[in-house]
Amino acid sequence: MATTETLTAERILAATEEVLRRHGPAKATVVDVARALGVSHGTVYRHFRTKAALREAVTERWLDRTSQSLAGLVTEDRDAGARLRDWFTALFTAKRHKAGDDPQLFATYQVLIGENSAVVERHIADLTGQLAGIVGDGVRRGTFAPVDPAATARAVFDATGRFHDPHYAHEWEQPGIEGEFGAVVDLVLRGLRA
Amino acid sequence: MATTETLTAERILAATEEVLRRHGPAKATVVDVARALGVSHGTVYRHFRTKAALREAVTERWLDRTSQSLAGLVTEDRDAGARLRDWFTALFTAKRHKAGDDPQLFATYQVLIGENSAVVERHIADLTGQLAGIVGDGVRRGTFAPVDPAATARAVFDATGRFHDPHYAHEWEQPGIEGEFGAVVDLVLRGLRA
DNA sequence: CAGATGACAGATATTGAAATCTGTCATCTG
DNA sequence: CAGATGACAGATTTCAATATCTGTCATCTG
To answer: Which PANTHER family match (chains A, B) (predicted)?
Structure first.
């Protein structure tokens, strides 16, 4: 079980995700993680002060993978409206795949997200920060009405919640959802234009 | 305990709400409801086929109280934009009071809502129906862009979810929330205007 | 001696036997 | 005889005992 490799935080996090996937959030123990790594559980506690800290780090890693996949769109040199639409489409698609491809793991992360509101807040700050970048661009170029980018980014993020908040994941496979997504994005974009 | 009065469905529902308030959703039993009414539990089953049906009816009653309090705004003869803003403000205020004034009971109803998705769907259909009325008026009078009232009502309802979906109730007492509500409503109204 | 170990105490979770609840229905009552 | 009752069977919940886990730390090892 790779006992020769150095025990890094990343290896522990990967093992923890695997244990969470196998056992679910209720039954995944630090002892399980240690066993998966071939070390004693005391060793895991050398890298993460508590089980809660370990779960928090796994949650952060999971959310950051989504943020990073979107970051590229912010700096592209294109119409802000189109970029905003693409950004939300990418976010919706990414979340929908996370939910649909491995429902087991997604349910697990929903529990972790409920436990780690501080991490979620940071994630939302990340995402609205990216949005503010696009909105600011649009305002500067005159595509969008002159608004405060940060406050407007938050409003736009809130308005699209049904298509990225995991609370609504169970609706993401319903038939009309694409159209409803489009309707909200259209409405929001009309509201932004100069 | 009012053993003389006729046993109506409404009396059973009121007693059930009281039992739910006292004991919470997990411990409220049909036997408790019967005891509160001074009848045997078999008698309760004469009016409601199952415990689930009883809880569903209580949930529907609770949601309908909100719908009815808003219905008046739909038929008023005023600017559609102003009515739409007032309607959402009234909805947000009503829900915020339900959540803030009796958190115990509100938490109980959140559980009931989770159990009764069909009732919730009907409630949402009620509310978006009211919205479609206002949107349709705005379109007819040329205040709003020419859109499909039903689809747009749904988009507008989705876009404001953070301020009426009970899932977000814990955020409704936070400091900046009024401003965030206003920002989303402003954005949506700008998106609707002709 | 830096890093890993595993025994340990207190906290948390599991389990299965006992208690309670749900839903039915034969019987009762006004 | 319309409507209420409460005994009952099966389902669900509670509770206390038992088992497992978390987090620490004195000890070990390369």
So the answer is: HTH-TYPE TRANSCRIPTIONAL REGULATOR RUTR, TRANSCRIPTIONAL REGULATORY PROTEIN
Kindly give the parts of chain B with pLDDT less than 70: 1-4
Mean pLDDT of A77-95: 97
Mean pLDDT of chain B: 95
Distance from CA of B100 to the nearest CA of A (A): 21
CA-CA distance, A107 to A119, in Å (whole number)? 17
- Chain B residues in contact with A158 by the CB 8 A cut-off are 159, 162, 180, 183-184
- CA within 13 Å, CB half, A151: 15
- Nucleotides of chain C in contact with protein CB (under 7 A) are 3-7, 13-14, 20-26
What's the whole-number mean pLDDT along residues A146-169? 98
Q: Which residues contact A92 (CB under 8 A, 6 or more apart)?
A: A163, A164, A172, A181
What domains sit in chain B, N to C, each tagged with a CATH number?
Answer: 1-48 (1.10.10.60), 55-192 (1.10.357.10)
